[in-house]
Design brief:
about 230 residues; alpha/beta; four-stranded mixed beta sheet; three-stranded parallel beta sheet; 5 helices; 9 strands; elongated
């Protein structure tokens, strides 16, 4: 994983709605990952875990289920409903046990430490942590471990721009309403500030273009007058 540069996940029925068919948070362990292919899945938005991969340069996302259209309309019309409460699914006894082994595993996952490449973690423990990670999700704010049985909150935000694209939707998961608000409110403020900055840059660009056009017309007009003057002589 540490040497992975390109990841192909096309046609995998990936979705934002269930942990089992989503991208695991362990993708952030891929420190050399520069390109991800998510085409032709069932994503409504990009998983927020991609924001934790600083080396990422390109994300292919075409052909997803209702991608962009519904999410974009939802984000800009249902202003009060950008945070949605999601009930827990069927209980999983493995994740409900409160023994020391499960508590320790939860602490390791919450730390977001790359346990795969940690030489102090025994191979057997790595296998157990890997199994836990495949069925768990972390709160994007406090990193608390959530399971498919845990109630949670879905949060939609927009990054504008993101890797050269504008208005890219992301879905976050939060364990409490407070964590959800701590994700959504700053993100909305950032997006609004970014939109204002882009409007300002566009206005400045248009003003400069108009000035350049007037100057060019002035130069052409001056040359035309000079030519007429020489012709009349």
């Amino acid at each position: 994983m540490c040497k992975l540069e390109r990841l192909y996940l096309t046609h995998n029925l990936l979705t934002n709605r269930t942990t089992r068919r989503s991208i695991p948070f362990t993708i952030s362990f891929c420190r050399r990952l520069v390109e991800v292919y998510l085409d032709n899945n069932q994503l409504d938005a990009l998983p927020c875990i991609l924001l934790r991969v600083p080396s990422l340069e390109r994300v292919h996302r075409h052909g997803n289920h209702n991608y962009f259209k519904n999410t974009f309309m939802f984000y800009h019309t249902d202003i009060q409903d950008r945070i949605l409460m999601m009930p827990g699914m069927n209980l999983n006894k493995m994740f409900l046990r409160k023994d020391l082994k499960n508590l320790a595993a939860g602490a390791v996952l919450s730390s977001r430490v790359d346990f795969y490449n940690n030489p102090t973690v025994p191979p057997g423990v790595k296998e157990y942590l890997s199994l836990k990670a495949n069925n768990a999700e972390l709160c994007d704010q406090c990193s608390r471990v959530l399971t498919s049985s845990s109630p949670s909150y879905r949060v939609f935000t927009f990054k504008n721009p993101y890797l050269g694209n504008t208005c890219v939707p992301f879905q976050h998961t939060a364990c409490t309403l407070l964590c959800a608000e701590d994700i959504e409110i700053p993100a909305r403020r950032e997006q609004m500030n970014s939109a204002r900055q882009q409007d300002l840059e566009y206005e400045q660009y248009m003003q400069q273009s108009m000035q350049d056009m007037h100057q060019e017309r002035g130069i052409l007009g001056s040359r035309s007058d000079t030519l007429r003057s020489k012709t009349s002589r």
